[in-house]
Every structure is written in structure tokens, then in C-alpha cells.
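re: ur question from earlier - yeah i can do the single chain one, its not a big deal. heres the input i used so u can compare w yours
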Amino acid sequence: MAKRRLPAEWEHHQCCWLAFPSDRDLWEDQLEGAQQEFLALAKTIGVSERLEILVKQKKDEEVVLRHLSDCQVRCHFIPYGDIWLRDTAPLFMKDETGHDYAIHFAWNGWGGKYNLEYDDRVSQAIIDLLQIESLYFNWVLEGGAIEVDGEGTCLTTKQCLLNPNRGLSSDQYQVEDALRSALGVTKILWLDRGLLNDHTDGHIDTIARFVAPGKVLCMEAMRCDDPNSEVLTEIAATLANYRDAQGRSLEIIPIPSPGLVLDHHREIMPASYLNFYISNQTVIVPTYDAPWDEDAIKLISQCFPYRNTIGLSAKSILTGGGAFHCITKQQ
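and the output i got, formated as C-alpha cells:
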């Protein structure tokens, strides 16, 4: 196979894969809110991308098609455990000739925390549906654990990829070799850890995001009661010392942290404005009714002058553990 490359998220998408939240046992009293937030997100993405949406039952398909009637949307009765397709769907790659194919990995429910039926089969089912060429790697890698610039640089965290519960290796150099082989990257930049109460063990897509080659967004605490104040300071300092695969010093762009965001049980949630999705026309930022929602949207918009940037509520979806980037997978 020709040399492969994982495109940056701001490159053109054919479509976006999502899965409709419908399991009352998982979402409890947040189900309706999560569904409303899902549909608002999907409608915004659907302005410029075809939507490929997994559904579990006919009534869910009817809801999706009714609310997204202005979009180009296809529903698929592919079984899935929950909606976190960033981690359970395949990664869509290109080779040096522009040929599309997919890669996918072993699955263990974020280190054995949430092993829901069918989640380990979602990637293969999507690949079979598309009849696309693919490669399988028999080690665990979730899509939210990596962030690439499309030019050879990959950001990730030690807390996740060197974690014994992922089972690849605790040896950083062995993990780097595996990432280079699978993703076609040439340089891996490591952060130590992620947000408090993040059950993914520090996924990168809540703490640092490329917005262009050589440019990385991170967050800073606005108040002393921010539960992530120390780790956010640490992240910014680490990034400031890095160069990317092309030898550029990273330009670090700070935005506010949402600060202390609590769920209905008064538990701290891993809220992040960085869990945005970059669609072909719009950057969609998750908001949490926090004081810095509008400031974060404005600062992110300055990084994407050729796209619209909007904020949409994600607080119900966040009760499940993630936000917009976690439930989307661009192709």
C-alpha cells in the first residue's frame, strides 16, 4: 500500500458519521436533552456535509429524518453500544495518490470501563457498508486520543496511550513506532494528562487542538475554582517547548476554560470548549451555560476566518462523558 496520511480535520469532508442517542438505560433523564443537542449539531453539520447516522430502531430513523429534512442524510441500522463514534468508528485515511481507505483498531471500552455490546464491531460494520479498503491493527487506539495537523505531527497524552489499561505498551518509543506505522505521522508530541473526571484517561481532543499547521489551541483557567487550573497551566507550558514535524515552533493560542461545570448529581464534568467539530463550513463549539461561552466562541472564530463559528449547547451530551468532537467522525 502506498504511503498513508491521516488528513487534518479542516480538510474537505465527504460526510460525517454520527449515532443517535436512544438508550434510556444509558442516558436516563438526560436522553431528551441529548437528543435535542444531537439534532441541533447534526443540522448544522448537514448544511455542508452529508450525514451518515446510525440508528437502533425505526422510530429513531423517523425522528432523525423528520428533524433533518433539509439535510442530505442516510440512516443505517448498524448496531452500536453508545454514540461515541470518534472512538468506535474507523479512521479515514488517504494515500499519496489521494486514494481513500480506512484503518481500525482493537476496542476495550476505554480501558475496560464501558464495554458496551456492539461497540467493538462498529468500525468493521461501517467498513463493510462502504466496501472500502481497510487495515486492522490489533492494539487499542481511540480516535479522540490523537490530534493531527495533516503534515506529519500527532499530539497525544501519556495518561491515555501509555496507560496499562490500553495494553499496547508502557514504553513511549514503542508506542511512537506504532503510531508512525498506523497513522503515517513522523513526529509525536506528548502531553502528560487530561481533564479531571475524564473517563477516557486524558483524550487529547479536550485539551489541545490544531487549528492550522503550527497552531494549537489550549485552555486557561479564568478563576481559582477551576478544577483543571494546574493541568491547563502545565499543558500550555509543555506545548510552548515543542516543534512540529516540519520544524516549526508551535504557536500556542489560549482560550478560556469553561471552569467548574457540574452535572445534576453535583459531580465535576470534563467540560471543554476544545471539543469542537470542524465541518466544511462551520466550526461548532460546545457550550455549557458557563460565563466564558461567548468569549471562547469569539476566540475560536478568529482561528477559522473562512468558516462560520457558532456555539451550541452540549451540557446534556456531556453527562455521557464527552461533547461534539466525541460523537462525530469525519470521512
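The domain at 4-330 is CATH 3.75.10.10 (L-arginine/glycine Amidinotransferase; Chain A). not sure if urs matches, ping me
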